[in-house]
Amino acid sequence: MRKVKSIVFLSGNGSNFQNIIDNIKSGFLHIEILSVVSNNKNAYGLERAKKEKIKTIMVNSDNDYNNVTEYIITNSVDIVILAGYMKILPKSFVNKHIGKILNIHPSLLPKYKGLNTHSRAIKDKEKYHGASVHFVTPDLDNGPVIIQGKVEIKNSDTKDILEEKIHKIEHEIYPLAIKWLSEKFIKQENDKCLFNNEVLTTPIEHI
Ligand code: GAR
Questions:
Q1: In this prediction, what percent of the chain has a pLDDT beyond 70?
Q2: Angle at CA 165, nearest 5°, toward 160 and 166?
Q3: Rg (the chain; Cα; Å)
Q4: Would you say the CB of residue 38 lies under 6 angstroms from ligand 1?
Q5: Does ligand 1 lie within 6 Å of residue 43's CB atom?
Q6: β-sheet bridge partners, residue 134
Q7: How far is CA 35 from the centre of its chain?
Q8: Which atom of ligand 1 lies at the shortest distance from residue 163's CA?
Q9: Does the C-beta of 157 come closer than 6 Å to ligand 1?
Q10: Which of 3, 56, 112, 150 is the most exposed place for a label (fewest CB within 10 A)?
């Protein structure tokens, strides 16, 4: 059977990318990663890609994104995985690949879209914080959420401690969502996520 083809976008450390690779190697995910795309030439994730002999592609201009679209079409890429990609994708790019793009975001969406989610949750004295995997739409961090994992914020939690806890959750929930999409168990329909052909009214809660 043909393996589901993916590409990963990242801007930084790439621990989620590494975790996806580990889940492919363990046999949990039946996908292949054709390329890693980045806007940051110093991203450590690019080193991880080189180590795994995965092609890397740099993007800066709108034209570069058009080239990635060409690449996606030519290579029949099924899934575009955003794993710590810190640049807003051009709306035209998103619209061309709608239903194929997944993102992981470090908050319990719709709370704390955008940046600095951990410090903002601590500052607001939230009881819980977490991570969400969602389909990407042209509006930032606004696409239908598939799965979320949460943790209680302790009084002693600093931004760094919370970030570490959230990464742990991300490494559990992202492979699940990727598996579901790669096995066509989930689907995006406009602003909704279908799970086994039923509209998800609330995100799956990971426990
Ligand atoms: C992750 O926490 C991810 O949720 C976040 O960047 C981090 C990347 O970590 N993404 C965003 O904030 C996107 N808006 P990693 O490079 O170790 O995978």
A1: 100
A2: 95
A3: 16
A4: no
A5: no
A6: 103, 145
A7: 15
A8: 2
A9: no
A10: 3
What's phi and psi for 8, nearest 5 deg?
-115, 130
Tokens read off for 165: 């806890």
pLDDT digits (tens, 9 = 90+) for 116-127: 999 999 999 999
Buried b (16+ CB within 10 A) or exposed e, 93-110: bbebbeebbbbbbbbbbe
Give the pLDDT of residue 2: 83
| 181 contact partners, CB below 8 Å, separation of at least 6 | 79, 102
CA 153 to chain CA centroid, nearest Å: 23
Which amino acid, residue 62?
A: D
If 0-12 CB within 10 Å is exposed, 13-18 middle and 19+ buried, where does residue 76 land? exposed
Question: Per-residue pLDDT tens for 20-56?
Answer: 999 999 999 999 999 999 999 999 999 999 999 999 9
Residues paired with residue 148 on neighbouring β-strands, in sequence order = 132, 205
Q: Which two tokens stand for residue 178?
A: 């990727």
Whether residue 144 has a cis bond before it, omega within 30° of 0: no
**Residue carrying structure tokens 């406009």:** 190
